[in-house]
Task: structure prediction
Amino acid sequence: MSQWSQVQQLEIKFLEQVDQFYDDNFPMEIRHLLAQWIESQDWEAAANNEAMAMILLQNLVIQVDEQLDRVSQEKNLLLIHNLKRVRKLLQGKYHGNPMHIAVIISNCLREERRILAAASMPVQGPLEKSLQNSVVSERQRNVEHKVSAIKNSAQMTDQDVKYLEDLQEEFDFRYKTIQSLEQNDKNSILIKQEMLALQAMLNTLDYKRKEVLSKIGRVIHEIDMLMSNMLTEELLDWKRRQQIACIGGPLHGGLDQLQNCFTLLAESLFQVRRQLEKLDELLTRLTYDGDPIPVQRPQLLEKVNFLLYNIFRNSFVVERQPCMPTHPQRPMVLKTLIQFTVKLRLLIKLPELNYQIRVKATIDKNVSTVSNRRFVLCGTHVKAMNMDESANGSLSVEFRHLQPKEMKTSAGSKGNEGPHMVTEELHSISFETQVCLYGLTINLETSSLPVVMISNVSQLPNAWASIIWYNLSTNDPQNLSFFNNPPAATLSQLLEVLSWQFSSYVGRGLNSEQLNMLAEKLTGQQVSYNDYQLSWAKFCKEHLPGKSFTFWVWLEAILDLIKKHILPLWIDGYIMGFVSKEKERILLKDKTPGTFLLRFSESNLGGITFTWVDQLENGDVTFHSVEPYNKGRLAALPFADILRDYKVIMADNVPENPLKYLYPDIPKDKAFGKHYSCQPNEGSKPSDGGGKGYVPSVFIPVSKILNDSTEPHSPSDLLPMSPSVYAVLREHLSPTAIETAVS
Result:
């Protein structure tokens, strides 16, 4: 079943997450129509290779054209229109930057895998539960309701101001009419009655002025209360969800809803400001003793301007944190002289601001004591915000060509730091701009979450560990001295984040049994998740007992192994992976001989092994574990083929495959058959070897078990045999005779 087919079968709450990251940059209809073709391409590799990305883009356009031809015959007008629009997008927007579409599609596929992994996990962790709190959802609905009510109140006040303006114009006309009469006419009874009517009208004007000012005051107070409490909490919650999403957690949504609230409130404040200006205009035409406008208007205007300053400053956010396109799963880790991207948004979407706001990016602004290392940003570091680049028309700007460059200092500190000193240094990328609108000038500033600067890719694992620990442990967006005294982390939350590393990076999270094994490895004992506090040093700096590497280096090597060599097997759930030798034997001892399981090596970095159970002639149970396969061996021979072809030479020198059933009782070929690269019993012509008539060969991994040993030797002995030779032998010899001959 294709990945897209699995996505379509998800529950609605997960489908809503999928819907969030498909937009006009990569329309969902293309994902749907070209599902199998898209999944068969290596978009992640293309994201780092411009030539490969250009080829894939051209092929994608060809695929779209083929679909367009098909739907044209079916006369599906809507789909024809959408496909033409998509083709125009691909040929226009991405022709000059093909790696950008490769990054987008790679990210979409990765997020699909993460959501599929999250959907398969039976229990939510404490962090994810806190992010999906029903109280938070209720507050979101309350905010939207209150914003809508405020907008309606401001519009109703507009009508009151208009009525007041009409009433004053009538008063002004009637008053000037009386003033223009001769003195004798003013003494008439009718004129006196008119004067009484004007006095009554003036009283009404006074009442209406007070009423309008009161209503304006209430609107301002409601906006102030909403901004100070609920909306601020909403924004802080969104920033916290962004932090968690950056380290592999659930996708963070809600920014469009916040933008709607901020925009409506800003529009209401500007509307109130115009109402106060209109009152000032009415004041110049008519005032009187006890007039409330000259007393109340200045205070209300000052409050409105203060709220406008405040709402604009809060609305300037980093929508997408700094990230190198070459390492999309490792945001906030930046390498010197390598480009990174970062996107900012102004949550107040007003057409008057389109292309009018220029944003400047700097690094370590106003920071002088956190680090001895100094950096500057190279590339285009000033750009205008606009509504054209974003699919949803938001007012945003994306920097795509920034590069951090380290400055040489007189202290000569560059290159003298230890491996952890560099990766524990936090830096800040700041952005500043100025908004000039309706006579107001507002200076805006915001910063990214702390980033770690590396100069060598070998520093990436430890740098990523720093990013994980920081964003797990604190809500503070700018604590650059965090690692001067890093706090401990709750084990339950840390394990949840570790599971996210697997779900986001390799498409399948960890179950409770796997997490239990990691907990024991971290603590050296069985502990309660909720109570145990783990130190930063234990996680990333201290070596594991008896080993020359830390826990994090060991885990990162496993992630790398899965990603590059055994990803399909891991996604299918056939690799138990994290299980100790002791637990392994408990699981296998009562199983049918030939039952095996796959686990990651605890003694070797980035190694995977398999252990099977056997039964001796006297009925005793014995276990055999093969020497771990590392990425070097797996680069030469796919792991599924190793499991299929693996042979053991026993004392009688008859090779046989001891692997029969994947734990608990799954026939080996049923579990791994679809991942075999070829069938060794299939005949092949000599010319099929692909090179000058050579017969293709197949490598068979073989181990030898001696009588006095329960452990096999290294599987480094690889015996070559071509498929065609094997097929010929099968025609003339029995399998036993073949095995004897091979030995």
